[in-house]
Amino acid sequence: MKTALLRFSLLAAAGLLTLGTARAQQAVSNGTLETWVTRHGDAPTDWLTFDDALAVALPGFPLPPSGGVTKSTDAHAGSFAAKLTSVNLTFPPVVGPGLLALGTKITQNDVDADTLDLVGGLPYTSRPARMQFYYKFAGTVATSDDRPTASVALTRTVGGVRQLVAKGRLFLPTTATTYTLATVPLTYKSSVVPDSIHIVFASADVTYDSNSDFTAGNSLFIDDVVMTGTATATRDAQLQAAVGVYPNPSTTGLFALAATTETSLLTGAYTVTDALGRVVLSQPAQPANATGTRPVDLRSQPAGVYSLRLDTPRGPVMHQLLIK
């Protein structure tokens, strides 16, 4: 069970979401994680760690490096990768998750944030379709809190108010013993050009929950982070018609995607968001099957309207799903 102090520390860690600039279809600054510095322990250049957040959350309490982020020679490419580990903290005496985010600055205002998705941010004016990276995971998933996560968001500030432009979040599969490509599709809420980007990786689900617990020793390896593709406001009508969904509406919450022509259109990653823009289901890319269909299981979700984005080899397909 988390203490109030741990909540304070974790929320401070949300401030790690100050991110470097990147251009669509180009590598994120030091996304290869090849360059490192010593600051509260190991830290990749242009990236921040949980120890950086603790230094802001607990000023005047110098702590030894937690080991939550370390430089690993077990890399996907090049010489190094980042290893994020859920570790036993000496103060507060609990298990803290390994956290890593691109950026150079954490402020005290970040301490009060209760979400990892929209804190901080640095200038960014592209509209990429997705974030991709390679990862491995080693450990025990004792509860859903132990699921490793990756988040990306684009925002624009108008009149002092930050608005969400696009968002993606992925709970990573926990059976990756070798480096695996992960894709986090961005679901766009607006056609405007963003001015900031936000990204975070964590060895556990750090969305605040007073009853959450993490398993010490779980390790997430991250390497070769990039933003790819270009989102456009215009949809391909022929492509849209080539992928259907049924039954829609559904009385059970179980849907199926169906390809009327090319079964390969169903192989891409997809995400489903609720009416508030929260990701309720995310599935990675998978091989085509002979049936020409692919399930979308929302049986655990309440009645309402949901938005599905499927990233096909020819571009995105969007559908509204209705659960009665």
**Structural domains: how many:** 2
CATH class of the largest domain: Mainly Beta
Number of helices: 3
Shape verdict: globular
- Measured between the Cα atoms of the first and last residue, the distance is 37 Å
Architecture of the largest domain in CATH? Sandwich
CATH topology of the largest domain: Jelly Rolls
The share of residues in extended strands comes to 35-45%
Low-confidence stretches: 1-25
Tell me the structural class.
mainly beta
Describe the sheet with the most strands.
7 strands, antiparallel
Keywords: Signal
Signal peptide: 1-24
Organism: Hymenobacter persicinus
Protein name: T9SS type A sorting domain-containing protein
Question: Briefly, what is this?
Answer:
The protein has 324 residues and is mainly beta. The protein is 7% helix and 39% strand. Strands 4, 9, 10, 12, 13, 15 and 16 form a seven-stranded antiparallel β-sheet that branches.
Q: Mind explaining what this structure looks like?
A:
The protein is mostly beta strands and 324 residues long. The chain folds into two domains: 36-230, BT2081, beta-jelly-roll domain (Jelly Rolls); 237-323, Sandwich (Immunoglobulin-like), CATH 2.60.40. The chain is built from three helices and 24 strands. The chain has helices at residues 4-13, 50-57, 237-242, and strands spanning 26-27, 36-38, 42-44, 47-49, 69-72, 81-85, 87-88, 95-96, 99-102, 122-123, 130-138, 149-158, 161-171, 180-185, 187-188, 196-202, 219-228, 243-246, 254-259, 270-273, 279-283, 293-297, 304-312, 315-323. The strands form six sheets. Strands 4, 9, 10, 12, 13, 15 and 16 form a seven-stranded antiparallel sheet that branches. Strands 1, 5, 6, 11, 14 and 17 form a six-stranded antiparallel sheet that branches. A four-stranded antiparallel sheet has the order 21-20-23-24, with no helix packed on it. Strand 2 and strand 3 (42-44) form a beta hairpin. The radius of gyration is 20 Å and the shape is globular. The relative contact order is 0.17. The model is unreliable at 1-25 (pLDDT under 50).
